[in-house]
Amino acid sequence: MTLGTAIAVGLITTFTSSIPGCIAIPNDRTAPMLAILAASVAATFSPGDPAMVPTCLAALLFATALDGMILWLLGHFRMGILVRFLPYPVVGGFMAGAGWLLVKGAFTVATGIEFDLANFFQLFHPATILRWAPSLAIALSMLIVTRRTRHFLVLPAIVVLGVILFYATTWVFGASLPQLRAIGWLPAPFPTAVAWHPISLSLLPATNWSAILSHLVTFATIVMVSAISMLMISSSLELSAKVEVDADRELQSAGLANFASFLAGGLIGFHSLSLTSLSLRIGPNSRWVGLFTAIATALTLFFAPNIVSYLPIPIISALLLYLGLNFLAEWLFDAYSRMRRTDYLIIVLILFVVAWAGYIIGVGVGLVMALTLFALRYSLIDVVRLELSGAQHRSNVDRTPDEIAILRPVRPTIHILKLQGFIFFGTAYSLLQRVRTRAHATSLDPLRYLILDFRHVTGVDSSALLSLSRLLHIGSQSDFATLCTSVPPAVFITLKRDAIVAEGFSFHPDVDHAVEWCEARELAAHQAELQPASLHIGNVLDQALPGQPEVVQNLARYFVPQNVAAGDILAIQGDKTRDLFLIQQGRISALLKAENGDVIRLRTLGPGSVVGEIGLYLGRPRTASLIAETDSVVWRLLPEAVAKMEREDPRSAAALHEILARMLAGRLIQANELLEISLR
User: Does pTM surpass 0.70?
Assistant: First the structure.
């Protein structure tokens, strides 16, 4: 079954993998679980029950088919993206752990002694040293030479020379093949033929399916270990091959290979990290490598299994030892100089845990450590992207001089925090502390409005909700209102689940509207002090040109009044109209439609404001649409009227250009202030 598996998965993987030179074999990580599965199934039968062997075989085949189906579905539904979320130190620890297990296996192959603490000192017995010392010498020569040159004939040459040297030495000492096998220098002879049969439907009637289905948890564990191993191997091979590996394709390749193994009556198998790495190091990378490996396995199975018994054990052990030492050298020595110490310690930790408790536990511990370090490092990133006061970030609403005078002392009491990233337990507390510090700062104006901008926030967790609830408590004690802006839909749903947060916060589309809300709330308390919300064109021009009543009167003659209902469009973004508008009453908004479809409010203009100067001067298409928010009265100045004014009344035309120049200069100053803030 094992050799049949190697043929099936080897052939399929050779032609379906995205990695030329990829080699697939029966998987060693699921082998212990398959053994437990078979033993557990066998234990449900009484000795001699004829259904025991068919049921055990059916259980193994069912595990292979299930594993193939799940791996293929994971690739089909693009779950290979999970590879991109594997921390680099965890992948390094996985490969270092693979190196240790290869070294351990190499010593076991060379000496016949299980490499563990109980037998550690036995390895240094003189007779035992003689068994593994040649393998170590050959492996070190392979390692030294291959780290200096990448020629694809280097390793085969060393292997051939090693075999020749072995047989030459034994010939000199007069050792026969039976003697070499007896003392463990050559493998014991294999059968001259192996009885192999593909899957047979005759298994089905004799199978006890209830005994198989009672071990569904074991099947789930096998599939989970296979999926994790496959993802780790894909990521590791990407580093070895130094090319981008399509993890989804590799999952599908492994799925198809296992289904082929099932049809051939085989076990679970997929990509071999050690053999594929060896193939990639020897080079040249070609699909012929996997094909010849499968063909050689088939020849061994059907025609000459005994030929393997002529390969010296020191050579076999040396190849395993070379692969293991190469992994350890790359991830324990080379990685030391190019990685952060904390990341390097994760690799070392995984290596020790793999050596002590096995692959899965080692990788699990490494993932936990990597995620813990990530959380600690991420919490050091300031959750506040930008911190502003209302004096630095005013709303895009044009205000009259009286309104500006009222709002000037109020603006410093508005505090804006532009947040970023994922808000969780590591960053939520720092946000709470920052708000608490601002609320209790005696050197600053009392805090009246706190604006939290969530535009660059990717998500929040339950600890963030708790901190926001505490923030509301601070707000009630210090008498400030909290506003949330630009909240992403997913974050908004999370915030709404907390009744205290949902009721305590005021939600607004963006910072601009939130600041406007604060300003409007302050202006509402001073309505009696403000001028009527309507300014005749003569009043507007008189304020702009004080002491020039004649020029004001002449200039006003060129404007045409127009009544506009709420929702009416004065200009559309992209139009080539050049009309200038002066607002007497109401509110007009300049709205920009971005390429992604979002509508951004550039400015809201009230009585006394002028808009349309870019089209008038440059003749370019409108950069924004002008839409009436309320019923309004505007005065329209046509480009033909401007041309007529310049011909008939140059003094009035000069006054108009002076008014527009002052207005543009003021807006440029405000734009520069916003640009300076955004570049912080």
Answer: no
